[in-house]
């Protein structure tokens, strides 16, 4: 193993300049040596900062995030979730993209978006889905005629659905993120 003294002499030889002045009282850097050390220190600090920045970005704590969202989810839990994300990761620029489910999944496959948030599951993405929250879907309809009635208009017959469910019979709707 080489000693520090030997390594410094090898460095001076490679640089073609005396970096350290050696005396019986010790060693100190020359003017050229101090300039070299200042530059080397900046380079080491820049490399350390580059590694730290890469680690932060790879953990998703800095950079950009493009979120594809089905239009029906533009409020409520999604808004609260995105606000919490912004609070926790202020250095991440979040961009939202609105779209239909099939287009969002296509954008996700093409790396045009980073994540797609939607209510409907997709069999092709089932192994990559992460349930985010469940919400109760409530339907309110007036009391009256049977659930389905046929009406006639000047354009011909049309169907009008009238549903009457009790709140306890309505299953929860799960919202998932695909990444």
From TrEMBL:
Signal peptide: none annotated. One of its GO terms (molecular function) is DNA binding. Residues 144-166 are annotated as: Disordered. InterPro entries: LysR_HTH_N, LysR_subst-bd, WH-like_DNA-bd_sf, WH_DNA-bd_sf. It comes from the Bacteria. SUPFAM superfamilies: Periplasmic binding protein-like II, Winged helix' DNA-binding domain. The keyword Repeat does not apply. The keyword Ubl conjugation does not apply. Keywords: DNA-binding, Transcription, Transcription regulation. GO terms for cellular component: protein-DNA complex. Gene3D superfamilies: Periplasmic binding protein-like II, Winged helix-like DNA-binding domain superfamily/Winged helix DNA-binding domain. Residues 3-30 form the HTH lysR-type domain. Belongs to the LysR transcriptional regulatory family. PANTHER family: HCA OPERON TRANSCRIPTIONAL ACTIVATOR HCAR (PTHR30346:SF0), TRANSCRIPTIONAL DUAL REGULATOR HCAR-RELATED (PTHR30346). This is LysR family transcriptional regulator.
